[in-house]
Amino acid sequence: MALRCLLVDDDVRFAESARVLLKREGIEVDIASTGAQAVRRTGELRPDVVLLDIQLGEESGFEVAREIQASWPTADSSQDGPRIILISTYSEADFGRLIEVSPVLGFIDKSSLSARAVRELLEDRC
């Protein structure tokens, strides 16, 4: 079964390019462009992983990650919660401490985004 992913990014061109790349590499991808869409779509789709841009227009990916975690139904849930990976054009070092204290698995630089990078991070952290 293919890995199911929700990609959350307000850059439409990047999101579509990443969707095509990840799909070609065996990951099913749905796209959201706002924090509200991300929270709603995560609840509807229950993806295996959420790839979440750190800077989502005026919104903070860190805050959106907390909202996704808070909205995840805990009762009668077969999953512990969504596995969230932050993505950005900025380097991980720019946000290191914030990433450490956020409810995410880790970080992938957008230029390094691939199905392999996602799977490796999921395997390392789960």
User: Order of strands across the biggest sheet?
Assistant: 2-1-3-6-7
Largest sheet: 5 strands, parallel
Mean pLDDT: 90
Shape: globular
Q: Over the alpha carbons, how many angstroms does the gyration radius reach?
A: 13 Å
CATH architecture: 3-Layer(aba) Sandwich
Q: What gap, in angstroms, lies between the N and C termini? A: 18 Å
Q: Which percent range fits the helix content? A: 40-55%
Measured by DSSP, the beta-strand proportion falls in: 15-25%
Structural class: alpha/beta
Count, helices: 5
CATH topology: Rossmann fold
Number of strands: 7
CATH class: Alpha Beta
Q: CATH H level: which superfamily? A: Response regulator
SSE pattern? EHEHEEEHEHEH
Question: What is the total number of structural domains?
Answer: 1
- Low-confidence segments, given as residue ranges, are none
In short:
This protein has 126 residues and is α/β, with parallel strands linked by helices.
What does this structure look like?
This protein has one domain (3-125): Response regulator (Rossmann fold). The chain has five helices and seven strands; from the N terminus they run E-H-E-H-E-E-E-H-E-H-E-H. The chain has helices at residues 12-24, 35-45, 61-71, 96-100, 115-125; strands at residues 3-8, 27-32, 49-53, 55-56, 59-60, 83-88, 106-109. The strands form two sheets. The protein has a five-stranded parallel beta sheet with strand order 2-1-3-6-7, sandwiched between helices. A two-stranded antiparallel ribbon has the order 4-5. Helix 2 packs parallel to helix 3 (61-71). The longest helix is centred in the N-terminal third of the chain and has 13 residues, at 12-24. The chain starts with a strand and ends with a helix. The model has no long low-confidence stretch (mean pLDDT 90).
